[in-house]
Amino acid sequence: MVKPLMKHPKFRRVAAPLALGVTLLLIWQISLQQMNVPVYLIPKPTDIGHALVSQSGLLFGSLWVTLKVTLLAFICAVVIGTLIAFLFVQSRVIEACFMPYAIFVSGYTHCRHCTISDYLDSKYHFSFGGLCHVGCDLPNFDQHHLGFT
Asked: N or C: which end of the chain has fewer CB within 10 A?
């Protein structure tokens, strides 16, 4: 007996997200057409597709430049990070001198309050409690920030 198409897990994994994407694109296209929204405010999906085709040389040239810069930055980060890690494992004194700065810099971009308080708590058993977590952003807001750990 042949299973219905919707019973196949592979079909559902592909069809459901695809159907949702097409539905959202149609809603976007039709709603902007009905409201006569100017293209410079919010372009319709068809306007975006037309721009991709008509200006593909310029867009893909810019994409190539961006990819080269990103790859170069990644390579530099790996090399510099490896050198710094190698430096840290050479001596406990070097590690003790630079580790607070490394922790601060690595955590500053996403949650400086928690990184500093976690360092102080782990090294000196000094805790700010929940007061230090006021500046946390939502993507990094986990059980630790709620005081459950």
From this structure: N
